[in-house]
């Protein structure tokens, strides 16, 4: 089961200047709970925006740079290699982005675990359109903004038809 995990704004925004645009502790707690002890696949820029490997996960980084090194991480040069490396360690890897990795991974994913942030943001990277003829919404939890979470948001899971 290959799962794409992302937080997406109403205009499909993912981030700007290699950073997340919003801070939602509720989303971060869910992200940690769901990905803990799993393989996580991400592009080099996404990894560098984090600054270090995610603890208690197998961090797999995709880069075209054949000489790239990141301590505590598995380095590969394609999504195909990343999926192969992940499957050796974990039957349920998560794909964490960025935008180009999401686009490449959509045909291979079985599930989308998304956080929809109910606001439009100025961004320079966007999540691919979700084709509703391929993806069926299976669950949704809605949350109102509060003192910790500035925006309304929803956790939505899609399954491939």
Descriptive overview:
There is one protein chain. The chain is of the alpha/beta class and 161 residues long. The chain has one domain: Dihydrofolate Reductase, subunit A. The protein contains 4 helices and 10 strands. It has helices at 25-35, 44-50, 79-89, 99-105, and strands at 3-9, 13-15, 39-43, 58-62, 73-76, 94-95, 111-117, 125-126, 135-143, 153-160. The chain has an 8-stranded mixed beta sheet, with helices on both faces. It has a two-stranded antiparallel ribbon with strand order 2-8. It starts with a strand and ends with a strand.
Structural class: alpha/beta
Distance between the termini: 14 Å
Largest sheet: 8 strands, mixed
In the sheet with the most strands, the strands line up as 5-4-3-6-1-7-10-9
Features:
eight-stranded mixed β-sheet; alpha/beta; 161 residues
Question: What is the fold's blueprint, element by element?
Answer:
Layout: E1 3-9, E2 13-15, H1 25-35, E3 39-43, H2 44-50, E4 58-62, E5 73-76, H3 79-89, E6 94-95, H4 99-105, E7 111-117, E8 125-126, E9 135-143, E10 153-160
Parallel strand pairs: 1-6, 1-7, 3-4, 3-6, 4-5
Antiparallel strand pairs: 2-8, 7-10, 9-10
């Amino acid at each position: 089961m290959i799962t794409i995990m992302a937080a997406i704004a109403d205009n499909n925004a993912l981030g700007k200047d290699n950073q997340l645009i919003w801070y939602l502790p509720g989303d971060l707690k869910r992200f940690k709970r769901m990905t803990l002890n799993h393989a996580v696949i991400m592009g080099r820029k996404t990894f560098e925006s984090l600054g270090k490997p995610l603890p208690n996960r197998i961090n797999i980084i995709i880069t075209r740079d054949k000489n790239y090194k990141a301590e505590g991480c598995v380095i590969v040069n394609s999504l195909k290699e990343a999926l192969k490396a992940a499957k050796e360690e974990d039957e349920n890897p998560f794909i964490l982005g960025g935008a180009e990795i999401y686009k490449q991974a959509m045909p291979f994913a079985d599930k989308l675990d998304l956080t929809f942030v109910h606001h439009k943001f100025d961004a320079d990277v966007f999540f691919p359109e979700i084709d509703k003829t391929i993806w069926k919404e299976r669950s949704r939890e809605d949350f109102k903004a509060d003192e910790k979470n500035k925006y309304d948001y929803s956790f939505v899971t899609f399954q491939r038809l």
